[in-house]
Amino acid sequence: MAAIEDAAGVGGLIGQSPAIARVRALIHQIGNSPVPVLIVGETGTGKELCAAAIAGLSDRKPYIPVNCATFSETLVDSELFGHDRGAFTGAIKDHPGIVGQVDGGILFLDELAETPLPVQAKLLRTLESGEYRRVGGTKIRRSRFRLLAATNGNPEELVAAGKLRADLVYRLGAIRIVLPPLRDRLEDIPLLVDAFLRRYRERAGTGPLGASADAYRILADHSWPGNIRELRNVIEAAAALAGRCNQLGARHVSQVLLLSGKGNGAVDRVPTLAEALNRAEARVIREALRRADDNRTLAAQMLGISEATLYRKLAKHHRSNWLGDASFHSGIAPNGGLRRNGRHCPNRGTANSA
Asked: By three-state DSSP, how is residue 248 classified?
C-alpha cells in the first residue's frame, strides 16, 4: 500500500518509471501557475487525471472539466459561451455558459480538436482579452480563467489537418505535458495493477489481493492500445472472474483478453530470447533518442554505435513494431524508409542487417 501511495504523489498518477516521474515533477512546477497548459497523450493515458492533478495544486476555483466531443457542433458555442434568451429556437431563457461559470477558476477542455474552428477563435480571443459575448448577445462580458486543454493527437498534425488553429496551439503550447503510453512504461504495471485491485476490492467487498507472476508476464506482453484505461478495465474484469481467489491468475487475465478479442488466450507462452533482446534493445534506443532530442548522430554516440548502424536498427525495430509509434518521430518514415535531415529516404533494402 505504501509503495502505491508513494508512487502516486500527484493526483493519483501512479508509477515509478522515469517517464511518469517527469510528468509528476512538471505538474508540481506549474500547478499553481496561471499559464495555460496543453496536455498531449494517446487515448487512455490519463489526460483528465493529469488536468485534475494540476487543478488540485492550484488555489483557483472552480475547476470545470469538459469533454468537447460530447457537444454537438451546432450547440458547442452556446454551451461554452452561453446564449441570450431568444438567440435561437428553443432558447427560452438566458444561459450563462461554461466560460461565465468558470470565472476565476480553471477550465479543462478535453478533445479540444473536436471544437469548430470559429469557436476556437472565440476561445483564443477570450484567453487574450478576458472578454466574450454570448450567442445572440451584444453585451461584452468578462471572464478570467486558466485554461487546460488536451488532445489525443499530435497538435501540429491536427493543425495541418485543419482540426486546430495554429494560433491557439501557440497560445496553449508554451507548457506542454506529453503523457507516455503504457507500452513505454511497462515497469509501472505492477503498481497500477495493485491500485486497480485495491479499488475493486473497495467496491466489491472481496477480490484478489495481488496477481501471479504468469499474469504479470501476459500483461507485459500485451501492446495496450487503450493504455491505462484498457489495463484498468482488463484488471477489473479479471478480478470479477477470479471471484474469491486470493490471487489474480494468468487464466483470468488471458480469458478477459481472449473474450475481448485482444489476446490469443495462451497462458504458457514464454517470449523467445530474441524477442526479449529485441525489446530491450528497442527501449534503450528509444531512451537514447529521447535524451538526444531525436538527434540521431548524438543518440548513436550515446549508444556507442555508428549512425548507419542506428539507422539499420531503427528500420529493423520499426518493421517488428518494437519501437511503437515513437519510431515515426525517430527517423522512420511511415512506409518503413528512413528520414535523413527531415527528408524521407525510401528503404532500398539496406536495413536488413543489424
From this structure: strand
In sequence order, what are the residues at sequence separation of 6 or more whose Cβ sits closer than 8 angstroms to the Cβ of residue 199? none
**The dihedral sign for the CA sequence 16, 287, 23, 28:** positive
Counting Cβ atoms within 10 Å, is residue 198 exposed (0-12), middle (13-18) or buried (19+)? middle
Task: Indicate whether this model's pTM tops 0.85.
Answer: no
* Order of all β-strands in the sheet with 146-151: 63-67, 106-110, 146-151, 37-40, 176-178
List the grid coordinates of 171: 497560445
The length of the chain in residues reads: 354
User: The cell 535531415 sits on which residue?
Assistant: 341
How do 343-345 and 131-132 pair as beta strands? unpaired
Residue of 39, 43, 50 lying closest to 14 (CA atoms): 50
Question: What's the pLDDT tens digit per position in 260-283?
Answer: 766 544 444 445 666 667 777 888
Is the separation of the CB atoms in 179 and 45 below 8 Å? yes
Tell me the C-alpha distance between 236 and 8, whole Å: 20
CA dihedral defined by 224, 229, 231, 235, rounded to 10 degrees? -160
Cβ(83)–Cβ(91) below 8 Å? yes
